[in-house]
């Protein structure tokens, strides 16, 4: 682990994710890998080890509950499809299942996450360890869009 | 003219970034009426552009391109043709209208998901067109305040015909849904919904109407529900938010022949098969002056809804007045086992029923003493009931007790329905279900010249008292 000042690091990371989420052409790429070089400045993401905390977010028809939640870095989040419909969980930067699959195939960083609908049918669970602070906006493309319909936000502090 | 645009279809999400990152205008922008549309001269797709009117394909080759170019108050006019598009709408207060209901056809080719999907955009009106062969829904609003669907035909879609979810303040009028495994028309997760369904026909679906956890000025009137597996089925369940289903008003509908053995059907439709109006765990609903006939099970049945693998416990009655937005913020409590949502405090009055083979009117539970549920029956024209003498057992305006009669005589054992479903005619693939020819239905009057008016968040007032039992039709 590279030592960085936490406050500075967090600000950089959150800014990166927010910009990625809000970009006008946010259709194909995922959150940036943790050690990407930007504008000549190397920012290194500090990953936090698992803290033993596990929380569950229900994926109902057609809502995430709770849809806005804050957790500590190192928490494992289990998404539980308790509805009767297929859903997916996509970062706002991803357009659809295919985009997510492509992202996960090429990006193994801890900020690349999500589950495509074939793997998240009723009764399925999906878990991810959120070990990088930031704001993670996500949605179900079947029943929503970024920030509307079936969507949610995880704030990892 | 038939126009194929298969090479041009595709979901375009331009603008959704604004929804995600802009303010919460989806919750606050009031509906407005368009004032930009010239009403004295008919718009034509061949005519020069009129301010505020976007013609497809003359000005924009695809509907999606026109939608993306539209600003609030604009009217999009679609010429007859077949459009292989899945249209996504994120701009509030626009009107999307076909010039002819029967020949403006959005066709998903069994590949695209929704004909038109409105996400978080308030006041969007969809008018006068057909959506068919979509893997999900013909017309879909979600997360909106104010919506309207007029003269819509939804035909052979893989989930719902007309699907309204987590949306309030709207009207679905003069519309039609057929050939969906779930419902021809659905309104769910809203309280108060402030929604009117009127002059709707649903047939050859799993369910005619479905409404999970909807209610509060949720009015279904003057419509036809026939030849589905089951007719009108409001229900409660914790698999969606804002439970229980409550305070829906179902008046003046024709409900018949809902025993259809060869329609597509989800599991709940198979379970509900053979019932006209089946209130499954709904509370405080009013079911009045409907004409209901020819069902293998009940004409009007108030039954419990069994929910396996529930996500929360059943809320106490004190929470029934909570708005949907308020209840969304509650944290769930994992129940120990399945839930039984009892139908409670419903009123069944003045309906005309015949030839419903198990019972014209019925109330049942799965263990709860029926008199404690406070459902009442009054002034219905019927022959059979379960339990027997139901109007004497459960009159309206009088507290019920076990002493009002024999509640066990002729009671309805709904537990057997769980067995019946195993032998029910199985669902038929929605893509290949044998539907009658698509009917040619009335188009919106003056579609080419009528001003575009976006959807109000307040449904029109309707004189419920003036509605009488409709005459029987073939």
Topology, pairings included?
The complex is a heterodimer of chains A (157) and B (474).
Chain A: H1 6-22, E1 37-38, E2 41-42, E3 54-59, E4 64-65, E5 68-71, E6 75-81, E7 90-91, H2 97-106, E8 125-130, E9 134-145, E10 148-156
Parallel strand pairs in A: 3-6, 5-10
Antiparallel strand pairs in A: 1-2, 3-4, 6-8, 7-9, 9-10
Chain B: H1 16-21, H2 25-28, E1 53-56, H3 63-69, E2 75-78, E3 81-83, E4 87-89, E5 95-98, E6 104-107, E7 114-119, E8 124-132, E9 137-142, E10 145-155, E11 160-165, E12 168-178, E13 183-188, E14 195-203, E15 207-212, E16 215-221, E17 224-226, E18 230-235, E19 246-251, E20 254-256, H4 267-272, E21 277-280, E22 286-288, E23 291-295, E24 298-303, E25 305-307, H5 324-328, E26 339-341, E27 347-349, E28 352-356, E29 359-363, E30 376-378, E31 385-386, H6 390-393, H7 417-423
Please, could you describe this protein's structure?
The complex is a heterodimer of chains A (157) and B (474). Chain A is of the alpha+beta class and 157 residues long. Chain A has a single domain, classed as Immunoglobulin-like (Sandwich), CATH 2.60.40. Helix content of chain A is 17%, strand content 33%. In chain A, the strands form three sheets. In chain A, strands 4-3-6-8 form a four-stranded mixed sheet, with no helix packed on it. The radius of gyration of chain A is 15 Å and the shape is globular. Chain A starts with 5 loop residues before the first helix and ends with a strand. Mean pLDDT of chain A is 78; it is low at 1-40. Chain B is mainly beta and 474 residues long. Chain B has one domain (89-446): Pectate Lyase C-like (3 Solenoid). Chain B has seven helices and 31 strands. Chain B has helices at residues 16-21, 25-28, 63-69, 267-272, 324-328, 390-393, 417-423, and strands at residues 53-56, 75-78, 81-83, 87-89, 95-98, 104-107, 114-119, 124-132, 137-142, 145-155, 160-165, 168-178, 183-188, 195-203, 207-212, 215-221, 224-226, 230-235, 246-251, 254-256, 277-280, 286-288, 291-295, 298-303, 305-307, 339-341, 347-349, 352-356, 359-363, 376-378, 385-386. Chain B has an 18-stranded parallel sheet that branches. In chain B, strands 4-7-9-11-13-15-18-21-24-29-31 form an eleven-stranded parallel sheet. In chain B, helix 3 links the parallel strand 1 and strand 2 (75-78). The longest helix of chain B is centred in the first third of the chain and has 7 residues, at 63-69. Chain B is globular, with a radius of gyration of 22 Å. Chain B starts with 15 loop residues before the first helix and ends in a 51-residue tail after the last helix. The model of chain B is unreliable at 1-45 (pLDDT under 50). At the A-B interface, strand 9 and strand 10 of A face helix 1 of B.
